[in-house]
Amino acid sequence: MISITVTDTGVGEPIARLLRGLQNPRQALKAIGALVMESTKESFARSQDPYGVPWLPNSDTTLRAMLHGHGKNFTKKGKVSARGQRQLAAKKPLLGESKSLSKQFGYRVVGNGVEVFSTMRYAAMQNFGGKKSEFPHLWGDIPARPFFPDAERGLPPALASHIESVLAEAILGSRG
């Protein structure tokens, strides 16, 4: 399981102050967890990191392995079939046949915070990258294709704005 902690200097402290002012921040934290989880799923749909930077394309080795996984991807003469060409054109980074990595997320409220995580064992390697020398079973080096926000860059502006809206709604609701 991969667990990412993001400490955002832009909205982190104001969010902490707002949460301290709520009588029961649990619902707001759950809503924030759901927002971060959905943002992470959107990264897979766009093949981009949370900040809009496109992921590196699949390597030739990955594309060859995908093609050779199905006999219908080749003609009887050994050429790539129309089906195989469609498969190549549609192959997005980090999306295998099961699409599990793009779906297996969860979140939990921990104190006055929320953790968003992937349940896939190889999620950290895909998010941060990995070297074949460290992971001999790999076909080659794996480039980092971040799908979670990172502590250095903080929360993406759109996500931070959505989180602020959730908190504002929670505060207004707790006053009424």
Q: Tally of extended strands?
A: 3
Tally of domains: 2
Extract low-pLDDT stretches.
Answer: none
Strand content: 5-15%
Shape: elongated
Order of strands in the sheet with the most strands?
1-3-2
Oligomer: single chain
Radius of gyration: 20 Å
- What string gives the helices and strands in order? EHHHHEEHH
Largest sheet composition? 3 strands, antiparallel
| Structural classification | mainly alpha
- Overall average pLDDT: 83
The proportion of residues forming helix, as a percent range, comes to: 40-55%
Head-to-tail CA distance between termini: 40 Å
Explain what this protein looks like in three dimensions.
The chain has 176 residues and is mainly α. It has two domains: 137 residues; 35 residues, no CATH class. 42% of the residues lie in helices and 9% in strands. It has a three-stranded antiparallel beta sheet with strand order 1-3-2. A hairpin with a 2-residue loop joins β2 and β3. α1 packs parallel to α6 and α2 packs antiparallel against α6. The longest helix has 21 residues. The mean pLDDT is 83.
Give the structure's gist in a few sentences:
This protein has 176 residues and is mainly alpha-helical. The chain contains six helices and three strands. Helix content is 42%, strand content 9%.
